[in-house]
Design goal:
By secondary structure, this protein is α+β, with helices and mostly antiparallel strands. It contains 5 helices and 7 strands; from the N terminus they run E-E-H-E-H-E-H-E-E-H-H-E.
């Protein structure tokens, strides 16, 4: 069995020595310039909860992927990115939270792609959305969006390369 070990200063997939077909895990960049996961963890950006410090590859394959296209009001991108950094600990404190990535669109600079990884759908829809942390998240971020984004959830990949 493979384990994706996320710990202080480390991010690696350790394959079973007998399994030569083991896939590798590659995680996407953060809202800043691409940075290794180890640096993101040390800096506490998008860090997984302590109880989730060791994830199996099977867990990563079964996780729920929350997606949203965030259209930010023009000329408010820098303020939005600052607010998103301030809001990260609110979502990261939710049980079942695995990780978050925010990507800025190249063609439309005020558009972002938000990807949040959850252990289960209810971790987002109940655990986070019905918490006091979500009310703080909403106060920090929702005034930047025009129009308000549609949030969707996706299951494990049908295929990947």
């Amino acid at each position: 069995m493979e384990r994706c070990v996320l710990g202080r200063g480390a991010a690696k997939v350790t394959p079973d020595p007998g399994d030569r077909s083991a896939p590798r895990v590659r995680l996407a960049s953060t809202l800043r310039e691409p940075a290794p996961l180890a640096r993101r963890i040390r800096g506490n950006d998008f860090a997984p909860r302590t109880s989730q410090s060791a994830l199996t590859l099977a867990t990563l394959k079964r996780m729920i992927l929350e997606t949203a296209i965030l259209n930010v009001r023009p000329a408010e991108e820098a303020a939005f990115e600052t607010a998103m950094r301030a809001a990260q600990p609110l979502i990261a404190a939710t049980p079942g939270f695995i990780g978050l990535d925010l990507h800025r669109c190249i063609e439309t600079p005020n558009r972002y792609l938000l990807l949040v990884r959850w252990r289960a759908l209810e971790d987002h829809t109940v655990g986070f959305r019905q918490s006091d942390r979500y009310r703080e998240w909403r106060a920090l971020l929702h005034h930047f969006y025009d129009p308000f984004p549609t949030v969707e959830h996706y299951s494990e990949p049908v295929t990947s390369a």
